[in-house]
Amino acid sequence: MINHNYKLAAAMIGTLALTGCQLTNYKPLPHVQSRLDIYQPVTLSADLSHLSQNQKKMVSLLIDAADVMDDLFWKQSYGEDKTTFLSRIPDPKVRQFAQINYGPWDRLDNERPFLKGIPTKRPGAEFYPKEMTKDEFSIAGLSDKKGLYSLVRYDENGKLKTIPYAMAYGPELKKAANLLRQAADLAEDRDFKKYLNMRANALLLNQYQPSDFAWMSMKTNPVDVVIGPIETYEDQLFGYRAGFEAYVLIKDQRWSKKLAKYAKQLPSLQRGLPVPSQYKQEKPGTNADLGAYDVVYYAGHSNAGGKTIAINLPNDEEVQLKEGTRRLQLKNAMRAKFDHILKPIADELIVPEQRNHITFNAFFANTMFHEVAHGLGIKNTINGNGTVRQALREHASALEEGKADILGLYMVSQLLKKGVIREGQLEDYYTTFLAGIFRSVRFGASSAHGKANMVRFNYFKEAEAFTRAPNGQYRVNMKKMKQAINDLSRLILTLQGDGSYAKVDQLFAEDGNIGPLLKEDLARLSKANIPVDITFIQGKEQLGL
Ligand SMILES: [Zn+2]
Q1: Starting at the edge strand that comes first in sequence, how are the strands of the sheet with 223-229 ordered?
Q2: Pick from 407, 339, 375, 371: which is nearest to 259 by CA?
Q3: How far is the CA of 444 from the centre of ligand 1 (A)?
Q4: 56-86 pLDDT, tens digit each
Q5: I need a surface site. Which of 73, 167, 232, 535 has the fewest CB within 10 A?
């Protein structure tokens, strides 16, 4: 009896404690004060004067649809109600930091919690049940086990099951689909109209491939939107499941023409890859295109933490093999990062004699060729291990980013030599690339890009592709850099082709970390108050809509 009362009392105290906890405000951890200014606010704007009234209304509707993706990504990454969570953070600067991170974990600091009482972030985020173990998942007989577009949950018998996004997020996706259809009604470009309607269907039917094909066949639309569950970086447990995101884009026709000539080089670049022929046997799509865009709205995954300045889509391997990919260079966002981050970094970390090689032209080209390089190499392993993505599981994204970076640079060298690229000199591209590594490794090693950059940095260091002066400034060694680029390209393409999960796992474990000297150098960047990334002041108001 006493025992029973004791239990009851304990249960009541438990309830009270829980209620009390729900009412308590979140306090920031002390270290977060130094993190609150790492994002430079930048206003996203673009010239819309060439658009008709209907097209402007359409942009407005696309922004509304993007907002739905934003809410869905909050659910996928954080889970509980976003409004309640944010309302419990009284300090406006900390609240804004939580908004940028889509939750209480610092995306550019290995997902470290920045609020008191917050547990470590689960690698599977909200895609998988809290209690689920990796082993449990691996032996579960699930249909759609590696599905991009489903959640994993327990059924009433405690067995794992999958729930398609279209079902799990039904009301939200219906709303987004409606907005896309309204936008389609206003679209003046026929192919864009078709794509918007098909994308609306994709959200409702949980089938994205037909709309990916439709997206690839559009060529002349002045407005574009990338929307839906797309990248799998948020699923750090397996890298299978996609996070919701959106980009609303205005095409820069003049720059896009300039870029079009590089697409013609794809087949010969694939043939020229520095790797045995079995590792380059797939043919990249020939109508792959490059375009320059101004982004007017980021939402969901694309707006969380560090911002992407170039996109290469679709991810669907079948579409890629048939149609290639589209590479979108986000010019206004790139310029902002170059001015506010890359140049100030070079002023701290690159030897004075090489600083004149830090140019926007090289930065633009390196980023552009990173995207080209995603379309090169192979998508399927050469030994029957399935697709590279499946074979390399949670490491697939990081290695793919590493491949794109290094092959991009390899291509720049080739095209300069051939005279296809006429701007700048090789020193510009290499030096700007090195400064770019410093920019990226400040992301920490948790993101796919951050990990890939660390592996490359350590590889270059060992190959003496750069040297570090005692004062902490870096100098590119042109000759050794060239050799290191070839060697690392070969290594990555081979690892992908063989689908060697174990070797990649080892590579990341050994070389994916930031050493003490580099840590010191990166600390100098924080001391100089150089922002780590940018955050956007964006929306209809900024566009005059
Ligand atoms: Zn990439």
Answers
A1: 223-229, 244-252, 289-300, 326-330, 310-313
A2: 371
A3: 17
A4: 999 999 999 999 999 999 999 999 889 999 9
A5: 167
163, 153 contact by CB (below 8 A): yes
Q: Which helix (H) or strand (E) holds 340?
A: none
3-state secondary structure of 282: coil
**Containing H/E element for 239?**
none
Report CA 221 to chain centroid distance, whole Å: 24
At residue 349, the pLDDT reads 97
- For ligand 1, the distance from its centroid to the CA atom of residue 404, given in whole angstroms, is 6
- Give the span between the Cα atoms of 198 and 116, in whole angstroms: 45
Angle separating helix axes 170-186 and 53-77, nearest 10 degrees:
160
Q: Cα(23)–Cα(19) distance, rounded to whole angstroms? A: 7
Residue 267: per-residue pLDDT: 84
The Cα–Cα gap between 236 and 226 comes to: 22
Give dist(CA 50, CA 434) in Å, integer. 38
pLDDT digits (tens, 9 = 90+) for 408-442: 999 899 989 988 888 899 999 999 999 999 988 87
CA 299 to ligand 1 centroid distance, Å: 18
Reference 306, options 33, 37, 36, 38; nearest CA is 38
CA atoms within 13 A of residue 442's CA, in its CB half-sphere: 25
**Beta carbons of 438 and 528 less than 8 angstroms apart:** no
Q: Copy the structure tokens of residue 245.
A: 């995101």
DSSP bridge pairs for 329: 292, 310
pTM: 0.79
Task: Find the 374 Cα to ligand 1 centroid distance in Å.
Answer: 7
Element counts in the chain: helices (H) and strands (E) = 23, 13
User: How far apart are the C-alpha atoms of 195 and 137, rounded to whole Å?
Assistant: 36
The alpha carbon of 367 and the centre of ligand 1 are apart by a number of angstroms equal to 9
**What's the token pair of residue 117?**
């009482």
CA 395 to chain centre: 14
| Closest to 178 measured CA to CA, from 208, 204, 207, 206 | 204
Environment class of residue 161 by beta-carbon count within 10 Å: exposed (0-12), middle (13-18) or buried (19+)?
middle
Distance 324 CA to ligand 1 centre (A): 15
For residue 315, give the nearest of 305, 327, 299 by alpha carbon: 327
Distance from the alpha carbon of residue 373 to the mean position of ligand 1, in angstroms: 8
Contact 395, 500 (CB under 8 A): no
CA of 398 to the centre of ligand 1 (A): 9
For residue 279, what are its two tokens?
């590792």
Three-state SS at 545: coil
- Helix spans in 287-395 (H): 317-323, 331-337, 343-349, 360-374, 388-392
DSSP state of 242: P
Kindly report the number of other CB atoms within 10 A of residue 482's CB atom. 16
46 C-alpha vs ligand 1 centroid, how far in Å? Answer: 24
* 81 Cβ contact partners less than 8 Å away, ≥ 6 residues apart: none
Q: How far is ligand 1, taken at its centre, from the CA of residue 116, in Å? A: 34
Spacing, Cα 403 to ligand 1 middle (Å): 9
